Amino acid sequence: MRFSVLILGNSSATPMYERHPTSQVVNHNEQLYLIDCGEGTQMQLTRYGIKSNRINHIFISHLHGDHYLGLVGLISSMHLMGRKTDLHLYGPAPLEEILALNFKYSETELRYNLIFHPTNPTETAVLFESKLLRVESFPLRHRIACTGFRFQEGERPAKLDIDKVAKLQIPPALINGIKWGLDFTDKDGKVHPSSELTTPAPLPRSYAYCSDTVRIPDYLPSIHRANLLYHESTFLHEMKDRAVETFHTTSFEAGEIAKEAEVGHLLLGHYSARYKTKELTLLLDEARSAFPHTDLSVEGKWYEVE
Amino acid sequence: MRFSVLILGNSSATPMYERHPTSQVVNHNEQLYLIDCGEGTQMQLTRYGIKSNRINHIFISHLHGDHYLGLVGLISSMHLMGRKTDLHLYGPAPLEEILALNFKYSETELRYNLIFHPTNPTETAVLFESKLLRVESFPLRHRIACTGFRFQEGERPAKLDIDKVAKLQIPPALINGIKWGLDFTDKDGKVHPSSELTTPAPLPRSYAYCSDTVRIPDYLPSIHRANLLYHESTFLHEMKDRAVETFHTTSFEAGEIAKEAEVGHLLLGHYSARYKTKELTLLLDEARSAFPHTDLSVEGKWYEVE
Fold first, then answer.
1. Is B88 flagged in the annotation as binding?
2. Taking the CB of residue B14, how many other CB atoms lie within 10 A of it?
3. What one-character-per-residue DSSP string does B265-302 give?
4. Which cofactors must be present for this protein to function (chains A, B) (predicted)?
5. Which helix (H) or strand (E) holds A128?
6. Domain boundaries, chain B
7. A74 to chain B nearest CA, in Å?
């Protein structure tokens, strides 16, 4: 079952040429979820071959422009392209007012339902839950209200032993039940336990997203043991004072946070425009000194949650 | 004296990969003016080497997203980059409310003065006037209130006859006055009329911008004899009904309008996403059948007003 993340933008507040404001796509089991929607997100989606109408859930962390200014354009384009499917939007409560004001003056009446779910800036909350996936928000600490997000898989089905299924001539209609733990009774009345027809389910995976925040221990439980953590890393640690002043994190701190939270893999992003693209390896080296399994996020690249 | 226009975006409502929402830069005498500011304008400015802090006047035609959604991002980035100079913004009155709401929730307090000038959607009005340039707005007819803009040069100074200036040893301090019509009295008391020391001033030039509008005769006087006219050309004429329904113009109509207004040169833009880039020549051919001196606007290209 696919679980991966496409980086559309990894720049901090001021975009640079070919470094875009924050946005990313999570693909879980071929369902697409958008996290943050900085200016230009709809063009980035087109560039990387993502059909925006496949996105049914959008999560906005906070109301700094580099995280939401692409939203009115994206929602409008979905409308112009004939979308009919409901779109669920999760974000800070005032976002609804901002959207309404733009649509009022452009006289836009969406042809689909835009269902807004305000996020809770002070407590962890479940935003979305299906059998396969649960999305939670949790408070970060930034200059304004901001939440992170955790995409947590539910229990996964066991893997079938194909040879045994063929040998026992198990009808296709029963397969799914067996993967989820039902036993199979053959035509002679013999019971074959699910556990004998399958290998154990893989562990549920999770992806955690933290941007923007100053380093605080409060959100460590929310990202604990995530297989993949995207964490902002705006500055080098020599800019620690500036990071605290602007409620951001240094790359060394991002590494320490990944270590403390025992995550599997750390992805850095939200780079300050002060660093040229070739200088980003400085951020990477610093984070790796605290947490070796770290990579720089690169726009246009998919990262597996594993 | 330089007078030219850089196209940053020429797509209609739905952007395409490498065709951006509407925005353009007018350079008159090395002063930069921005017309419209679709999503991604700040990135397009960077891409084409325009320092946004050189822009002191921004003109917004109307409040459809593809003409203003890049504004909050651009204004914020100017702030983050330390701008101190006043910025004058001209556009529909509700734009001020939209900006204020965004800045309220992002808790942005601009470090420079943003001076908002609401445009008049029903009458021609002078927005800005200096000795060298006057910018007027005039009503267009679109689904919502919309104005075009005319950049009109003032009287231009006469051109000096360099040889005569050298021969008469005219002091540099007097040169500018002579170009503007003052006579020169030499040390023997002989008067040399300005007209003998100069060749006549070139005619004042003008640039007119019309996007978005359905074809109506009302605005023809406002674009009359513009040296360069940028006119929207959303559809081929076979889509005339759709153009009327959506308050847009066909390319054949744009050509006819250019002819009726006796402009010097027509530039097409605001192309519908239904036309692939290689199909835009169909729009061009159609406009040229009515007005031969027509070109397709191309993003990243400067067009002279001459």
1. no
2. 20
3. EEEEE-B-TTS-GGGHHHHHHHHHHH-SSEEE--TT-E
4. Zn(2+)
5. strand A125-129
6. 3-156+202-304, 159-199
7. 9
Whether omega before B186 lies within 30 degrees of 0, making that bond cis, reads no
Residue pLDDT, tens place only, A182-213: 999 999 999 999 999 999 988 999 999 999 99
Determine if residue B265 is labeled as part of a ligand binding site: no
CB A289: neighbour CB atoms within 10 A?
14
pLDDT one-digit tens code per residue, A99-138: 999 999 999 999 999 999 999 999 999 999 998 999 999 9
- Is it the case that residue A16 has pLDDT exceeding 80? no
Residue with structure tokens 């359905």? B214
Tell the residue number behind the tokens 């799914």, with chain if given: A176
Nearest-CA distance from A221 to chain B in Å? 27
Q: Which amino acid is at B44?
A: Q
> What DSSP state is assigned to residue A87?
E
Compute the residue count for chain A: 306
Counted residue by residue, chain B has a size of 306
pLDDT tens readout for residues B45-93? 999 999 999 999 999 999 999 999 999 999 999 999 999 999 999 999 9
**Across the interface, do B42 and A94 touch by the CB < 8 Å criterion?**
no
Would you name the residues of B annotated as active-site residues?
66
Report whether B231 belongs to an annotated binding site: no
CATH number for the domain whose boundaries are B3-156+202-304: 3.60.15.10
Residue B60: CA count within 13 A, CB half-sphere: 29
In DSSP terms, which residues pair with B276 in a beta bridge?
A: none
* Amino acid occupying residue B137: S
Tell which of B8, B11, B17, B39 to mutate to test the A interface (max A CBs under 10 Å). B39
Q: Where are the beta strands (DSSP E) in chain B?
A: 3-9, 23-28, 31-37, 55-59, 87-91, 114-118, 125-129, 133-139, 147-153, 159-160, 184-185, 191-192, 198-199, 206-210, 228-232, 265-269, 294-296, 302-304
**Considering only CB atoms, which chain A residues are within 8 Å of B121?**
none
- Test the A interface: residue of B79, B105, B277 with most A CBs within 10 Å: B105
In the predicted model, what is the mean pLDDT of residues A86-104? 98
Pick from A40, A69, A101: which is nearest to B101 by CB? A101
Helix (H, G, I), strand (E, B) or coil at A85: coil
Alpha carbon separation from B124 to A6, A28, B131, B134, B230 (Å, rounded): 49, 55, 20, 13, 18
Is the pLDDT at B13 greater than 90, yes or no?
Answer: no
Judge whether residue A20 has pLDDT over 80. yes
Mutation target to probe the A interface, by most A beta carbons within 10 A, among B61, B95, B98, B106 is B106
| A46: closest chain B residue by CA | B17
Strand partners, B6: B25, B302
Rg (alpha carbons) of chain B, rounded to whole number? 22
Q: How many A-B residue pairs are in contact by the CB < 8 A criterion?
A: 97
Antiparallel, parallel or unpaired: β A265-269 and A294-296: parallel
Q: How far is CA B59 from the centre of its chain?
A: 8
B134 CA: distance to closest CA in chain A (Å): 28
CB contact under 8 A, A65 and B97: no
